[in-house]
Amino acid sequence: MRFPAETLQPHRESLIVLGSFAASLFVGAGIIALYGVNPLDAYAYMISGALGDSDALVATLSRMVPIALATLSIAVAFNGGMWNIGAEGQLYFGAFAAAWVGLTLPGLPGMILMPLGLAAGIGAAAFWAWIPGILSLKRGLNVVVLTIMLNSLAIYFTSALVTGPYAGTRVAAGATDKIPEAMRFLHLSNFSTLNTGIFVALAAVACMALVMLRTVPGYDWRMCRMNCRFAQYGGVNVVGRQIWAMLLSGAFAGLAGSLLVMGDLYRFRTGLSPGYTWTGMILAMMVAYHPLGGMAAAFVYAVMSSGALEMELMTEVPVEVVEIILGTAVLFVTAGFALSNRLANRLRED
Amino acid sequence: MAAWIHAVVRMVVPLLLLAQGGTWTLQTGILNIGQEGALLLSAFFAVLGNHLFGSWIMGILFAVGVAVLYNLLFGLFCVTLRANIWVVGMTLNIMADAGAILLMKSIFGVKGGFRSDRMVPMPNLEMPFLPEWLAPYCNGYSLAAWLTLIFVLFCWYVDSRTVFGMRLKAAGENEEALEAAGISVSRLRYATLLVNSVAVGLAGAFLSTSYLFGFTQGMSAGRGWMAVGAVIFGGGSMKWMLGAVLLFGLAQAGGNQLQALGVPSYYALMLPYILVILSLVVRQWMKKRG
Fold first, then answer.
1. Which residues of chain B make contact with A148, given a CB cutoff of 8 A?
2. SS3 A321
3. Is B278 on the interface with A (CB under 8 A)?
4. What is the rounded average pLDDT for all residues in chain A?
5. Residue A1 — very low, low, confident or very high, per pLDDT cuts 50/70/90?
6. Distance from CA of A37 to the nearest CA of B (A)
7. Most buried of A43, A71, A116, A320 (most Cβ within 10 A)?
């Protein structure tokens, strides 16, 4: 019976992830059945609501952009062994910085304003990630608690700014005025906020995936996560690598925030993100931090959550069931890895 | 002055319960980072039990019940399967957040928040026999505050005066030695997770049926995380954990006070978080020197 085990071995991770996702859909079906709804109908509504026609498809893609960037932000950090729980705050900080550029320098041409806005958003967010990164790597503080506290700080601080000195004059409370037109990514359709920023996002994702999968730093990050001491012994500059994982994680959160401001809303407002990075965290953990897997997961999530709105309308099953399903998938993946490692150890001992 | 003390106590009670429970699980080597989600779910189930039976006791029982299930799930992954606590804890936190909204929509058919006329608030403990000068300082606290005091005294006694307390610390510091002595480390860890569940359940019930009345989305408001901060600050020591809880509670109460004095609310809300970060930096610096 050696043959199947050896052919399956190289695909172990993918198999566990796909199997867990399938299993979690069954759990979801069980929950949906509790509402007296046929699960197949509910899933069908999800698919038709998300992909049924071109308008729905565009709306789904538009939903996918911030989720995909947030997923990659978390994947970069977690893959490098940095538990950056603070991407939400970094996203807010970056988004505000991008809006600030537009509001402070309205007269500049788009050629300067757009890169400047992106750079400010990415830079501010990376800085907000650098603080806990350096404190944990150099001083040994717990990065999770630090980043959680910095989340709340960033969200309250930007809220204070946007209800105080930067409050918009022609808009409801809690939002800035619109940024100048020269700085906006154009909307690609009338029915959703899908905009040309998606190309920036695509380019960034492609570069990052390449770095993570095909370069030495990408390999070093995985080593840092799996066995930090071993990586150090093998000559990896652990602190240098990990601070970069943190900076890039912040950069992607900042890019997500900047694109929300410069492409979707054209202004900063409180409650800008309905928890994109928390969703991204679930997705990144579900695929064990694989960047391309993360993109696939972001697409699946965009379809499920976009379609879930139609499902809630038609069947009264709440949209939150999507989060529960994907959370269950993460738990299954975790259990799957733990059990397969144990099994592998036992086989080795025999 | 008395009003000020009451305000601080209201902030300290949930933090202290969570941090005490978390300190115990940390002593056995499990940093329980699922506290935020457990607190939120407990707060919801306290409202649910209270609404269904019109009794605050049922509210507490419901809250403790759901906290037990939650912590058992955490234990299944982190103790039995030895999975990564950050992955499991964050997943459970996020699922609890979504789950509370899902349940509120499904059971009560409302979004955002729920309260009902059938709910009975947790009573305050009043001692009418106290002299007049002492009464304002000692009366008017929720029953949960006194239960918290008893709980912490109990934990302190067990921790410092019993064999069980020594074993807890051994489980965290050298689990192989403890296993060699014939004591099951997993069982100790599950035991502390169960004690933690009682604390979390009580904290949730306090939040939604005593301090506030009713459930609102995201009402745990980072208290679980602040408690984790206090647990890490203490590093398993009750003394330091108590200091941190007191500091954070003071900061929260102070922040509220500042709002009342006219400081823009968002700046006042930032105060406790800044203090948590600063205190962790200073504590780490002290650890390195000492």
1. 222, 225, 228-229
2. helix
3. no
4. 90
5. very low
6. 13
7. A71
